Amino acid sequence: MDILVINAGSSSLKYQFFNMKTHEVLAKGLCERIGIEGSRVKHAAKGKEKFEKEIAMKTHAEAIRVVTQLMTSPEYGVIKSMSEIEAVGHRIVSGGEFFDRSVLVDDEVIEKIAICNVLAPLHNPHHLTGINACKEVMPGVPQVVTFDTAFHQSMPIKAYLYALPYEYYEKYKVRRYGAHGTSHRYVAGRAAQMMGRPVEQLKIITCHLGNGSSITAVDGGRSVDTSMGLTPLAGVPMGTRSGSLDPAILGYVMERENLDIQQMTKILNEKSGVLGISGVSSDFRDLDAAVLEGNKRAEAALDIFVYAVKKYIGAYAAAMGGVDAVVFTAGIGENNARLRERIVDGLGFMGIKLDQEKNKVTGEEKDVTADGSKVKLFVVPTNEELVIALDTEEIVSALRAGK
Ligand code: ADP
Q: Which residues line ligand 1 (CB under 6 A)?
């Protein structure tokens, strides 16, 4: 089965086309500035010349048309006709409490995703646009949706409920949903495979550290706690996001700076995190460079980030009553060896020891455990698109088999 995986944003559409026999990506690309002047498409297919061009794309449906034309073009494509796209898998940011797994798209599913728009206003509406665009361009092709929140639906009430008047949960569904679930699920599964043990028997802490960062406690293959909350603003400080803080700070600063709630929320999302602390950058590479030049605020930003991640590792080991493996993934987790080293530094008392030599790795799956460490340490490049493709294959195969 060949599957097209789509991640639709407000003005962008990323895609990967998988051969599910080999799990190979046959083609991938990005449509940018959809509906805006100067829309462009970047496309790369296996064994073909790369393609990049400004092409007018007023809607997501037009973008999907461009993608399918490229995929079937003799020059840049990998398939002869559109009928070779047997199924489409979509990434969806929020499935709220409706979805604890990937599902086949039907009217009811679309309705529920739309209800979750309030929980992911910057993402869900655009995912729906992507689904509708595929329906229009590829009628009859089964579509599956995979939710970033689904993996965390297994959290128990003690992990997901906030200590607020219960009616806010009842009326507005205020609770912890978490994020990056597809990534946490994938890297926990890979770690178990690398250990040669069933994930059901393992306690794993997964650290997805990128522009947005979240840590998850995966007990027996199920998420039992995660650092992001109702929204992806919670948890550790991130590139530009504050992470969790004393909620009273909001009123205190808003009063003094004369800010309304929208302005404050924007500051917490876009002007805080390591950017806010350092005043230098949200990118950890820039912070590393600034530290080398003696910038104390950049140093403090990195210290605060490392300390926060370290505390989550301790907390989640306590929450699960032990830990068998810690996994690092995403931009920072995969590539920043020094930060990995610093995060687990001093955790020898928990049986966590990293091998500095093995840890000299970027963007590659690797066991970086030191000899004698009770807890395994892994670097695992995340692959959310593959998970979406695998879920899509499973659901569409079952559909075909009449299950
Ligand atoms: P997003 O959450 O937007 O997907 P990423 O997972 O790409 O973000 O993470 C971005 C972060 O990863 C940046 O702070 C960047 O410094 C870091 N990063 C990405 N690639 C590298 C690399 N090759 N070496 C060191 N750091 C990297």
A: 210-212, 239, 283-285, 330-332, 335-336, 362
| Ligand 1 atom closest to residue 208's alpha carbon, by position in its atom list | 6
Sign of CA dihedral 94, 97, 103, 108: negative
Which of 228, 332, 380, 382 most suits a substitution to test ligand 1, by most atoms within 8 Å of the C-beta? 332
Nearest residue by C-alpha to atom 1 in ligand 1:
211
Q: Give the model's pLDDT for residue 400.
A: 92
pLDDT at 122: 85
* C-alpha 28 – ligand 1 centre gap (Å): 20
Catalytic one of 2, 148, 225, 324? 148
Per-residue pLDDT reduced to its tens digit, 183-215: 999 999 999 999 999 999 999 999 999 999 999
Token pair belonging to 273: 């995190």
Q: Which residues contact 365 (CB under 8 A, 6 or more apart)?
A: 190, 194, 378, 379, 380, 381
CB 218 within 8 A of CB 206: yes
- Positions of the chain with pLDDT lower than 50, given as ranges: none
pTM equals: 0.95
For a mutational test of ligand 1's pocket, the pick from 122, 269, 336, 359, i.e. the residue with the most ligand atoms closer than 8 A to its C-beta, is 336
Distances (CA, A) of 187 to 50, 134, 328, 336, 394: 30, 29, 8, 17, 19
Residue labelled with tokens 């597809």: 182
Residue from 339, 143, 362, 176 nearest 354 by CA? 339
Strand partners, 89: 5, 144
- Whole-number Å distance between alpha carbons of 164 and 282: 32
pLDDT tens, position by position, 23-79 = 999 999 999 999 999 999 999 999 999 999 999 999 999 999 999 999 999 999 999
